[in-house]
Amino acid sequence: MDIKSIRDLYSLLIDDRMSLIYAGSFKDNVTTKAIKLSEHNLEKSEEVVNLKKKSSFLMAECFQNVVRHNEPEKASEYHPAEQGFFMTRSKGHMFYIASSNIIEKHLVDELQETLGDLNKKSQEELKELYMTGLRDKGLSEKGGAGLGLIEMARKSKHPLTYNFKKMSDKLYGFYLLIQMKSSTSEEESTMLDIGEVEKIHKIMVDNDMLLIYKGDFSLEAIAPIINMLDTNLQSHEIEHYENKKVFVTLVEMIQNISKHGLDNNGVKYGLLAIGRKNGHFHLGAGNFIKKENKQKLIDHIDKINNASYEELRAMLRDALLKTTIENVEGKIGLMDVAKTSKKKLHYEFDDSIGDNLFYSFMVKF
Prior knowledge:
Shape: elongated
Order of helices and strands: HEHHHEEHHHEEHEHHEEHHHEE
Number of domains: 1
Helix content: 40-55%
Structural class: alpha+beta
Number of helices: 13
Number of strands: 10
């Protein structure tokens, strides 16, 4: 992951109200935080607010599908982002949920046949199949449709999109995409191609990414982001001290966007990306700023990057004593990131995205 990838990701997801793309630990508390984060963004938009309850159920089912069908021991030789992948996107009147996990070859034909059959059934037929499954409990939870897949097809009211990617003679990547449209919209549905899901997944793998979040960074939105990051970090075998440094830096970066990103009708849009390569974390963030603030920000970051550790500590102490002065608080966050990480801050500006200036910065541990 490099500084350019922050801008490229934002450009790719620019029309999304919210994007959450995740690879890593699929524990129950991660599921809860992902759902809470998506619910917050749905509540912010009248276009899709009526999808909140349905989307929460389907996200939980999709997470469980990854956990239930994954083959972690057999897939351990692959990149962590290939072993388990989850994505939600809110765009216009549509809400998309996608996942990918590694399955054994012998399950491919069975899943393909079952999903194809589910997509041919009417809502009434799906309901009857689900009720039969509840009574008989004869549907496979490992290889066949399972009640979860039936409910995905029934509640989404759109065909389930899927694909299988060969990874070895014995293992395949199983991609599943659920698409929902707001019941208040009379517009034609904009269906997402499964190839775009695979493209985003490949970006994560190629850039060694663990998490991408694009959306609202206002104060009420950032708590579930922070909790998700804490869970993901704890799942990696890193020393407590290093874990704490990374976590503190992430919180500072998130709060920096929350406090100082441009406000757009009560929403502060930004992007956060986390990567890990060869045991080292790469943390990136991007948000919009006013063009007239560019040079002042450049001067501030360059001053931080050119300071020694002791000089940086002195600068931070001095700034903390002046927190009542206008704009001083905004400078403290970047100082703290540099002090905690003990690394140079990488930054970039781009004026080709929207009317304001897109500001990206990154720190590598």
